Amino acid sequence: MTATKSFRSHLIVNVVAALAGLAAWELLFALFLGKWLSSFWFFRIHGLSVVGLLVVAAGSAISYVEFHGLGSQEGVVRQGEPRPRVALTFDDGPHPVYTAQVLDILGEHDIKATFFLVGRHVLKYPETAKRIEQEGHDIGNHTFTHKDLLTAKRRILLSEVDKTDEAIYKITGVQTKLFRPPRGALGPACRRALVEKGYRIVLWTVSAADWSGISPKAIAARVLRYTKPGGIVLFHDSGALVRSEGASRGNTVKALAEVIEKLRAKGFEIVPVSSMLSDLAAAEALALEDGRAAQAPSLF
Ligand code: NI
């Protein structure tokens, strides 16, 4: 798997932020703090520079894991066939305000999207969850509590996934086999457990970075710049940095119509993730039939 542009930009942001912090420290040290702090041995060797370098290393590692996962990648879908089709996906909902606004805009443009739902939000906002199903969108599982799965034990993963499946089924009648791990990070034991349960683990090619508080204009510009044929775009219709909900997604809502209209103007058809998966499966079957398995677009 080659690095995607969004991986590169994410990596650059991490490294630049760490280097900027380092430079600021060095400047402070040179201008004001040096004399006073040099009485402490660890500052004499610019101890925080070492810390800064560790931060750069950790930032790079986090970027790598977020965009590439750990270990082999059976069951993981990162993008669709390279046709002019794109899937819009929304994580962390349902939310009574933002999901409803997103659904209104999708409806006005006659678009089907994909919603990766947090189980406890499904139980908290059942009417919104029902509306997603009634309006024909794909529904996927995004754990019950927005659990970090990088280091989670298999037992915890299964409990998170099963509780969410039950909630989704009880409220919407949908039995989903789509899963997206929170933050896109998944340890190998969790990935294997999901594959055994028949899940497709759906990641993304472009993050709208709407969680970071950027403007609607910046969200739209980012999505339009990085979306390629077969792209999967990640938005958030709920969520928060630390808790599972609470942040404003007003900017996501404001960016959405422009994103849809401009993607269409560029010739993209907007489809739910399930359509992309059937595209991939068809392409792979065709390639196997033709004896060109080696060139088959990889499902995994
Ligand atoms: Ni999430």
Describe this structure in words.
This protein is α/β, with parallel strands linked by helices and 300 residues long. The protein has 2 domains: 5-68; 76-285, Alpha-Beta Barrel (TIM Barrel). The protein is 52% helix and 11% strand. The chain has 11 helices and 9 strands. It has helices spanning 5-37, 41-44, 47-68, 98-108, 119-124, 126-134, 154-172, 188-196, 216-226, 250-265, 273-289, and strands at residues 76-77, 85-91, 114-117, 138-141, 178-179, 200-202, 206-207, 231-236, 269-270. Strands 2, 3, 4, 7, 8 and 9 form a 6-stranded parallel sheet that branches. It has a 3-stranded parallel sheet with strand order 1-6-5. Strand 5 (178-179), helix 8 and strand 6 form a beta-alpha-beta unit. Helix 1 (5-37) packs antiparallel against helix 3 and helix 9 packs parallel to helix 10. The longest helix has 33 residues, at 5-37. The protein starts with a helix and ends in an 11-residue tail after the last helix. The relative contact order is 0.15. The structure holds nickel (II) ion. Residues 91-92, 142, 146, 182, 239 line the site of nickel (II) ion (NI).
